[in-house]
Design a protein that fits this description.
CATH superfamily of one domain: Ribokinase
Number of strands: 15
Radius of gyration: 18 Å
Shape: globular
Largest sheet: 9 strands, mixed
Structural class: alpha/beta
Number of helices: 10
Helix content: 25-40%
Order of helices and strands: EEEHEHEEEHEHEHEHEEHEEEHHH
Distance between the termini: 21 Å
């Protein structure tokens, strides 16, 4: 890869995450919460930093105590906070989460007037994106102005300055007033994206032409629709610009789809699941770290799968991302990369 001063800058959501202390309890029976940090770009930044990359986060926080909590954590994790403005009049975001394994993980977002949606083009300019090898963006930041324009400007700046752009499709249905606009925004940004990452559900949501083509409720897409349309959706994404689309498939690992039609299946690392929240971000952090090392995409995805497997065994997201030595020990104990 090209020579740059820093490795990675991620852009988008940041929050305080309040996780249920009562694992397995229904949401109405939760008695207490643990305070962690979260937001997909923040999680990815922390994960990549713990593995050894030089990382910055571009987000927005309020002038409040929750911002102090987040910034303190990031500084402890050696994630640069120089690109994080405190935005007067806005509040740092929050998320409340339940943990009901194996398949129920309800969550509630508090994002009214949230600071990370108030990022502007000026904040992007101050972040000095040309100094980085990779810009990672999360599509939720495209849902509202001014963060939408800030993301488009960041992508344009990266593209013009030989910075590889990685898109986390990051579909959060309740963050969009019209689900069709999610697809429109993602497809508008794809021509400058080098690598896109998403689940089958996210890929389908990003390629919708009409909202009645697929049933969407609480961020879920019905399995029959996924099965029937996913190949077409993958080709639509690749036809829009990216060289590579990586489909996250949970315990089954990941599938790499190349623009020339090639496909690689990358097996995962089966483990007992405690909490799937944050697993996709862990995958992205491991994959991007491997990509920064110049590894093959297959090997980078294997590390991503390992990082995801590590995190699903833990209660938190950013707080439980693996460090380099412990992840490599985990990988070796499961047969290597």
């Amino acid at each position: 890869m090209k020579q740059k001063k820093f490795d990675l800058i991620t852009m988008g959501r940041s929050s305080i995450d309040l996780y249920s202390q009562n694992i397995g309890a229904e949401f109405i029976h939760i008695k207490g919460f643990d305070a962690f940090v979260g937001g997909s770009p923040l999680n990815i930044a922390v994960g990549a930093s713990r593995l050894g990359a030089s990382v910055a986060l571009l987000t927005g926080v309020g002038n409040d105590k929750i911002a102090d909590f987040i910034l303190h954590f990031l500084e402890e994790q050696k994630v640069s906070t120089h690109a994080i403005p405190r935005i007067e009049g806005a509040r740092t975001s929050a998320v409340v989460l339940g943990i009901e394994p194996p398949d129920r993980f309800p969550l509630v977002y508090y994002r009214d007037n949230c600071a990370d949606s108030q990022m502007t083009i000026d904040h992007v300019i101050a972040a000095d994106i040309p100094q980085y090898r990779v810009l990672e963006i999360s599509a939720t930041a495209l849902n509202i102005e001014p963060s939408r324009s800030a993301v488009f400007y960041a992508v344009e700046t990266a593209y013009d300055n030989d910075v590889d752009i990685v898109l986390d499709i990051d579909f959060r249905a309740d963050q969009w007033k019209d689900l069709r606009s999610f697809g429109l925004m993602v497809r508008a940004i794809l021509p400058k994206v080098k690598i896109a990452i998403g689940t089958e559900e996210e890929i389908l949501a990003a390629t919708l032409q009409h909202s009645d083509q697929v049933k969407i409720s609480h961020q879920q897409i019905s399995a029959p629709e996924v099965k029937g349309n996913i190949d077409q959706a993958i080709q639509k994404i690749l036809g829009s610009g990216p060289e590579v689309l990586i489909v996250k498939r949970g315990s089954k690992g990941a599938t790499i789809h190349y623009k020339d039609g090639r496909m690689e299946e990358v097996p995962g690392y089966p483990v007992e699941v405690l909490n799937v929240l944050g697993a996709g971000d862990a995958f992205a952090s491991g994959f991007i770290y491997g990509y920064l090392q110049g590894w093959s995409l297959y090997k980078a995805c294997r590390l991503g799968n390992a990082s995801g497997a590590w995190v699903v065994q833990k209660p938190g997201c950013a707080n439980d991302m693996p460090y380099h030595n412990e992840l490599m020990q985990f990988v070796e104990s499961r047969g290597g990369l």
